[in-house]
Specification:
By secondary structure, this protein is mostly beta strands. Helix content is 10%, strand content 36%. It is built from 6 helices and 37 strands. Strands 11, 12, 14, 16, 17, 18 and 20 form a 7-stranded mixed β-sheet that branches. Strands 26-23-30-35-32-33 form a 6-stranded mixed β-sheet. The protein has a 5-stranded mixed β-sheet with strand order 13-22-21-15-19. A hairpin with a 6-residue loop joins β3 (88-100) and β4 (107-112). The protein is globular, with a radius of gyration of 28 Å.
Length: 576
């Protein structure tokens, strides 16, 4: 490096004493160096460099001692105090069709890089993900990153309200950051009924090595994607046709674990392993358990929890949990079980926990799940620790639809985010849906609720139906503060857990019950609030939350990406 100019006069500006100007050394330390110039007992200076950091060092005996001390200080800073840029990770994924028989019947599935389920995406807190998605399907597609908050970046959320779908035989590059997050998540297609055919996978965000987690490092970890599965195809001749004809989804045909009816996971006796379990299905809550083994719950969608011990766990549609399993039993194989909850017929998939020194295959009865009663699941959810939105299942024009506060959502011809950015009229109206149930007749509409950046809101999900619900909010974690039977009232707040409520991105609402959440709206953008049960979402049980600040600022939200796809009434506009 070039030496500092010894003739420059003392200054309070850091760049005259720290070079290059982009150094990560704090300005306060540079100013401390500047103060050495004012010491009358120090005569003469010499230029000293430690790594990329330059400073002026005095030449007297005292000066040399101070110089050596400063060299040590800056060497320490160069090793521990200078943070490198957050890592960039690059991926190219190609989406194609393939054939598989997960339930014994050959059917068309969606592959990513030839894999079903798709590749496991392992990241670290604050990683920058650059993912080029090539669409080789015969239909447009989008992927959404379930649980990734997309700070200031709803442009990358991957739903039809924020992105134009990627046309066949074209590509789009997602650019997003796992900003300040850890935990177990998933990704899946958000377009049409593609999710019913695959294209989903695990997305794990690991803590940085310098950030401690409240449990010992496991010997390894496994991702388990559990969920219901249908033998009918996903296209117009299958599940999509059923929904388009105005009928609800039928009962599923089976349950899969990682795209199979039977999976195996190996571990060494005496070791502890993390199992990251996500319910990637369309409509069915799942109970998860392992024969003869206890599960220590340590994380739920990025939130560290009290580490309670469970024999089995309910995981509702769209939810993810992380549990620690210690292989402390006799060396043999044990059943891993995923079974449906709150269904008339219980469907079950099994896998195997295989001890590497196993001396016997799995045997004995499959461990039974909990009672079919809802109370058991409510009690478990409570142990984890005002807008009122009521879901309904109306018939509109003689066809089955699903609605929120009487409005069944329909996608406009232009993504809401683009319409908002370009001020395109006629696409949506803010607050086109009421913030409490109106009691009026059902209607079709493009539902958008307005809110201001930095608002703090309470949302109550009121479920008057006799089926369980699962709700997801893009862009946020929220505090789940209350569950209850019947109708929510203001007196229900007396039961809220305001001490150690769990944060998560997807919550269940039990039949004839309510769930209350609190949300701090600190992430500007257009965010999808939807039923995680995909048939209900497809037929209208969703809306968008427009979190807005009238003063444009990169501190609040990034600008439109320079590779954004334009469609609908946004075609031909400049990417500015």
């Amino acid at each position: 490096p070039s030496p500092l100019d010894p003739a420059s006069s003392p200054s309070s500006e850091a760049p005259s004493h720290c070079s290059p100007p982009t150094t990560s050394v704090p300005t306060s330390l540079c100013l401390f160096l500047a103060s050495l110039d004012d010491l009358p007992s120090l005569a003469g200076t010499s230029d000293v460099w430690v790594g990329s950091v330059g400073f002026r060092a005095p030449l007297s005996e005292m000066g040399r001692a101070i110089s050596l001390y400063l060299v040590a200080v800056f060497a320490f800073w160069s090793v521990l105090g200078v943070r490198s840029e957050d890592a960039y990770k690059y991926y190219t994924w190609t989406v194609t069709y393939g054939t598989a028989a997960p339930l014994g019947v050959s059917q068309q599935v969606i592959l990513i890089n030839g894999q079903f389920p798709g590749p496991r995406l392992d990241t670290v807190t604050n990683d920058n993900i650059i993912l080029n998605l090539i669409n080789k399907l015969d239909q447009p597609i989008l992927l959404t990153w379930n649980g990734i908050k997309q700070r200031k970046n709803s442009w990358q959320d991957g739903v039809l309200g924020t992105n134009c779908p990627i046309p066949p035989n074209t590509n789009y590059t997602y650019k997003f950051q796992t900003k300040d997050q850890i935990g177990s998540y998933s990704y899946f297609p958000s377009t049409l009924m593609h999710r019913a055919a695959g294209g989903f996978g695990a997305l794990n965000v690991y803590a940085r090595s310098v950030i401690p987690v409240p449990y010992a490092t496991p010997a390894g970890d496994y991702s388990l994607l559990v969920g219901d599965w249908y033998k009918a195809g996903h296209k117009a001749s299958g599940l999509q046709q059923i929904l388009d004809s105005g009928k609800p989804l039928p009962s599923p045909d089976g349950i899969l674990i990682n795209g199979q009816g039977h999976s195996s996971f190996s571990g060494n006796q005496g070791k502890t392993y993390m199992f990251r379990v996500s319910n990637i299905g369309l409509s069915t809550s799942i109970n998860f358990r392992i024969q003869g083994h206890k599960m220590k719950l340590v994380e739920v969608e990025g939130s560290h929890v009290l580490q309670n011990i469970y024999d089995s766990l309910d995981i509702h549609v769209g939810q993810s949990v992380s549990v620690l399993i210690t292989l402390n039993q006799s060396p043999k194989d044990y059943y891993i079980v995923a079974s449906t909850r709150f269904t008339q017929a219980v469907l079950t998939a099994t896998g195997v926990l295989h001890y590497t020194n196993s001396q016997a295959p799995v045997n004995g009865p499959i461990p039974a799940g909990p009672t079919i009663e809802v109370d058991w699941s409510i009690d478990q959810a409570r142990s984890y620790r005002t807008i009122i939105l009521a879901n309904t299942a109306p018939l509109i024009n003689g066809k089955q639809r699903y609605a929120v506060n009487g409005v069944s959502y329909i996608n406009p011809d232009t993504p809401l985010k683009l319409a908002d950015h370009y001020n395109i009229p006629g696409v949506f109206i803010v607050n086109s849906i009421q913030s409490t149930p109106s009691g009026g007749g059902p209607s079709l509409g493009t539902s958008v609720l307005g809110a201001s950046l930095h608002d703090f809101i309470e949302v109550v999900f009121q479920n008057n139906e006799d089926t369980i619900q699962s709700w997801h909010l893009d862009g946020y974690d929220f505090w789940v503060v209350g569950f209850g039977n019947g109708q929510w009232t203001q007196a229900s707040r007396q039961t809220y857990n305001l001490d150690d409520a769990l944060t998560r991105h997807t919550t269940q609402v039990y039949p004839k019950s309510w769930t209350a959440i609190l949300v701090s709206l600190d992430n500007q953008g257009m965010w999808n609030l939807r039923s995680a049960m995909w048939g209900r979402q497809y037929l209208g049980q969703q809306l968008y939350l427009r979190v807005y600040n009238p003063t444009p600022s990169f501190a609040n939200e990034y600008d439109i990406p320079n590779n954004a796809l334009l469609c609908g009434r946004a075609v031909g506009r400049k990417l500015t």
